[in-house]
Structure formats: structure tokens, C-alpha cells
């Protein structure tokens, strides 16, 4: 079982879009996948046509200590969701440093063992919910958009993760995915070059292009594979699923180009 936190303190970078569509791509390929909505805004549930605030979920698990398995909702074949619940934000008011960062890790311990993937969709913040996600995970997937502020945010996030790994002695494998990508924009290409020079073996080979249909999906309560299966968005998320399964990074794809040339 791979537990992966989809994390970035910046909002609007595609965390929820990536969690929903990557998870569905992996489920369609036959993997058993669980997605956990750890954002009190409950947007992940909407991506699958559910109202996350109508269901109890991670709020009961983390605040009341209820067993996580009783909140699993089967949303698609091979795919189940644990909703955020209406009072998840209350956890941010708890005192940190009293074991409150390990609530999710404990709740998941020994659970979901039959799953191939567990994805945790994080809120755009670096508080206690994010700490819980990091401690419960072995890997982090960081969506970044192709602009300079996003790159600045990325170096801050990488430093935060390093600090976290050392303090809590909890190593994490980091992966980066470039989202909302405009291939023809010079800025996008420059950002790709920077990413490649700093983190060649962490950036997944696939970039997710800016695709109108991806933004329309949540309003339809459907994933891109249901709403526009032939769109660039569907092609890109299917390709990203392959990268995730085979750890295919930019460094690998450059090697292929070098060998071909
Ligand atoms: N590749 C994309 N192309 C077009 N719109 C996108 C893409 N990725 C995300 N969006 C849209 O951008 C907004 C923010 O994305 P979201 O996944 O909610 O970000 P986050 O979870 O990081 O806050 C949403 O309206 C979403 O539909
Ligand atoms: Mg989100």
C-alpha cells in the first residue's frame, strides 16, 4: 500500500483535481484506491458528485477517535472516499505537540491494507491537518503550476518538509507534478528548466495541461474520464498514473531522448 499526501500550502495549484483524476485513472487501471478528503472545504467529494458536508468522515475519525473504516464510501469501481465532514476545521484549534499530529497515522494503522493506493487531499495550509497528512504518509505529491511564485512556494515547501523529516525522523519520498501547464508559454518552459535543474529525479515526466474540461468536471460531479474521456486532461492524468506506477521522472524521459538521439 502506497500512502501519498497531495500537498502544497498554496491554493489553486491542482491538489484536489489531481487527487480525484489521478485516483480514478489508477482505479480504472485495476488498482484499489482510497481517497481521503483532509480539506475542510470538502471539494474532493464534489469532484465525485457527493456533498462532502452532508457526510460525517475525517472530523469524527480525528476528533472523536471513531474507526476510519466506518466512513468509507464506495464512489466508483475500485475507488472509495472518506469525506472531510462538516467540522474537520476544528482540528486546527487543537494544541499541537501533544500527539495531535499523529491522529491520522494512528487511525490508518493496520487499516486499508487491501488497498494499492491511499491519497490524502490536503488543505492549502501548513497547520495540524498537513502535519497529520505528512506523518501518515510515506510519499508526498506536490502539484506546482508553471509560474515563478509557484516555484518560490516550492522551495519553501521543500525546506518545510526537510525540517519535518529531520525533527520527526520520518523520511518522505517527494514527487512533483507540473499542473495547469501552458506548453506554448515561455514562462512555463523556463519553469520546467528550473525544475529539471533542481529536482530532476522528483518531477514526474508528465505535465498536466491547462484544460477547460478539467475545471468543468467538479460542477458535473464527474471525473475527466467520465466527462471528457478524449480530452487532453484525460490523456495527461492517464499518463501521470503510468508515471506514478513506474516512477517515471523527467530525468528518465531525458535519458530516453538522449538514447534515441
Ligand atoms: N489542469 C487544469 N486545467 C484547468 N483547470 C484546472 C486544472 N487543474 C485545476 N484546475 C482548476 O483550478 C482550480 C483550482 O484547482 P484545485 O484542484 O481545486 O486546486 P487546489 O486543490 O490546489 O486548491 C479549480 O477550479 C480547478 O477546476
Ligand atoms: Mg483542494
Written overview of the protein:
With 261 residues, the protein is α/β, with parallel strands linked by helices. The model has no long low-confidence stretch (mean pLDDT 92). It has one domain: 3-Layer(aba) Sandwich (Rossmann fold). The relative contact order is 0.17. The chain has eleven helices and seven strands. Strands 3-4-2-5-1-6-7 form a seven-stranded mixed β-sheet, sandwiched between helices. Helix 6 (148-168) links the parallel strand 6 and strand 7 (173-179). It has helices at 15-28, 43-47, 58-64, 103-108, 128-136, 148-168, 186-198, 212-220, 224-227, 232-246, 250-260; strands at residues 2-6, 33-37, 73-76, 79-82, 117-121, 139-145, 173-179. The structure holds adenosine-5'-diphosphate and magnesium ion.
Short description:
This protein has helices at 15-28, 43-47, 58-64, 103-108, 128-136, 148-168, 186-198, 212-220, 224-227, 232-246, 250-260, and strands at 2-6, 33-37, 73-76, 79-82, 117-121, 139-145, 173-179. It is an alpha/beta fold and 261 residues long.
Helix/strand layout:
Blueprint: E1 2-6, H1 15-28, E2 33-37, H2 43-47, H3 58-64, E3 73-76, E4 79-82, H4 103-108, E5 117-121, H5 128-136, E6 139-145, H6 148-168, E7 173-179, H7 186-198, H8 212-220, H9 224-227, H10 232-246, H11 250-260
Parallel strand pairs: 1-5, 1-6, 2-4, 2-5, 6-7
Antiparallel strand pairs: 3-4
Helix pairs in contact: 1-10
The chain binds adenosine-5'-diphosphate (ADP) and magnesium ion.
